[in-house]
User: What shape does this take?
Amino acid sequence: MNIITGETGVGKSILIDAMNLLVGERASSDVIRTGSEKAIVEGTFDIAGNQNVINFLGENNYDLSSDLIVRREVSSKGSNRSFINDTPATLTHLKEIGKYLIDLHGQHEHQSLLRTETHIDLLDNFGGLEKLLEEYQVHYDNLSRLFKEINSLKEKEKGLKEKKDFYEFQAREIDEINPKPNELEDITTRLNILENSEKLYEATSRIYEMLYESDSAVYDQMIKIRNMLDDLGRIDKIFLEMKKEASTVTSVVDELAKFIQSYNSRIEFSPELLEEYRERLGSLILLQKKYGGSIDAVLEYRKKIARELDLAENFESEIENLKSQIESERKKCSDAAVRLSQKRRETAEKIGKSILTILNELGIPNPKFEVKINNEKVEDKNSFVKLGREFYKADSKGFDKVEFYISTNPGEEVKPLAKVASGGEVSRIMLSLKTILAKSDRLPLMVFDEIDVGVSGRVAQKVGKALKNLSEFHQIISITHLPQIAGFADAHYLVEKTSKGNRTFSTIRKLKVEEKIIEIAKLISGEIVTETSIKSARELINNSV
Assistant: This one.
């Protein structure tokens, strides 16, 4: 139980702002001291046994140790940086890990109770209904996806009906030409050969003549050379090796002549085939221009048309299939919503009784507190929850509308909390909720910035006792102006403002026992401490043990 006190304006809120930075709140260069280049905030957390944090660190590749160090650096140049265990981190990660570390209630944040939409989360938290809610949300997400699919399909049906004739025309156009993969390259090569058939014929004929048929044919010359080398080999055997090379060349010339002769015999002179290839090439090039720039793109587009036309022919069966899936998933979603709702109603009775007990202890005599759960019927057949023939309004948290009702005056009926509670009552209701949630809430640190706002001295002792009880389950940091609450401190810290030259500094220090007594006496009597106020301070501390 850590209590922080100090005069108004000495800088206590700096601590709250610093903690907000550690859990990922947006930073402004306004927090930087004039003349400095950056501000640094660092927090060290004991995470032994905090499995949520340990899992987060492992899943996101941060170093793991018994202590977690979170650091923010806010630069006047705008290059702000964040670190988790000295590893650079994103603000998103700070926010995610912060949810497992700190429950921070600023001066006005306990007013969140006045927002009806928060009541369902508080109820689920108290009842430990996370798994039931997750089970429902799985079916809710599946159903949401199916509704999107069927709506998209229906919208597509309208567009496809308009495009069907056009798609059929395009399919016929492509099918009539019936292009094949790599055909354009093949046709281009064949056309090039046909267009140059005369040149090919003349050149190959001339080559064959030079190699084999003329008076000075290369083949004949090589035979003569080979024979001469054979004769020379009888004189010097070194020429026999060259004779082998000449024989090889002769064989190569023979093979080359045969290839040229064979190629020459296959050359076609066909104006009809030439025209056919030219027409085919023109058709393929036209398809390319119209449907994607390449034959592969044309073939892929044809597949797409086939799928669209097949879909157009089978819309009814596709839609019926989706409708069947929707009904099946809606049944599961509705069953999960009912199970969740039943547990919420059981939890509502428990939370109502528990809060009444604590509100009595906190100085609200004979209160009435109810958690009302309602369900709203709708005509929308796309609703996520259907019970029998009735459809109900639902969202990602189920089909329950949860709202807290209270009466703090005997004889008055309960009314919505948001409309009737005073500031002090809201503070005590929030404290009541935190007290009954304490054992199930795994957040190690709870921070209360003046949760005692609107609380009179008569009730302050009870509020302090409630905070002290919370400290059995959490580390508590509470900023207060009330001596009755400060008396419960296990550790009491004082924030003070000092000036040095033309600069102002805020400091915080832990008070020793006698200093704590003096500080509480100041809270009782003001700046002038009397023997009576000191005696009262001692009594407050002794009564708080």
In short: The radius of gyration is 44 Å.
